[in-house]
Specification:
6 strands, single chain
């Protein structure tokens, strides 16, 4: 695959999921573009315990990785003429989801997601909020009707996860499937369901 996958990181809780997602893409040499909001950087430091820039340095050692500042609206991914394989916002804050549902794109992350919607490219949202009120639900319904896929980061308890890493790996695997990256899915994430089928296809 030559077109990159865009990973948008917002200020919702769940930075570990974004890190695991980017790590998994790069392990399989899938071109990856990371976009992180200012709030996402703050949560990153709080939850992971390191500056986002330190993680960027690590990722930038991989030739398939690219990063653009959140306010760089001249970045290639801001244009529909730049081909991408799709985008995941992981974690997706309710503020970002509301902005997208309202057609607002005030930063590069939101603009890139809006491009995916208008160009009919895969857009996956991993929302982090609970409980959800009616506005949250209506915003996600609006985006779902526009073609986005909503993947709540819910554990598969029947798989008997033994760690947070197991839970995160499962969510990342579901995102791989939602983006159409089944063939590139990391082997350890190909969980077997109760009937021996890939859990990502298990209902």
């Amino acid at each position: 695959m030559t077109n990159p996958v865009v990973v948008g990181i917002t200020g919702a809780s769940g930075a570990v999921m974004a890190r695991s997602m980017v790590d998994a893409l790069l392990r399989h040499d899938i071109p990856t573009v990371a976009l992180c909001s200012n709030a996402g950087r703050l949560v990153w430091q709080e939850e992971i315990g390191e500056h986002f820039n330190d993680t960027l340095i690590e990722w930038q050692e991989h030739p398939a990785f690219t990063h653009y500042p959140i306010n760089d609206l001249r970045a290639p991914v801001a244009s529909g003429t730049y081909p991408t394989a799709g985008m995941v916002i992981m974690p997706a804050s309710m503020n970002s989801i509301a902005s997208l549902a309202g057609g607002l794109s005030g930063n590069l992350l939101l603009r890139t997601a809006d491009v995916c919607l208008k160009e009919r490219r895969p857009l996956v949202l991993v929302p982090r909020e609970t409980p959800l009120h009616s506005i949250h639900l209506n915003n996600m319904l609006t985006l779902s009707r526009m073609g986005a896929v909503v993947v709540p980061p819910e554990p598969a308890f029947y798989l008997k996860p033994q760690s947070i890493e197991d839970i995160v790996d499962f969510v990342v695997a579901r995102v791989f499937v939602a983006l159409g990256l089944d063939q590139a899915m990391p082997e350890k994430m190909q969980y077997q369901g109760p009937e021996g089928e890939l859990d990502s296809h298990h209902g």
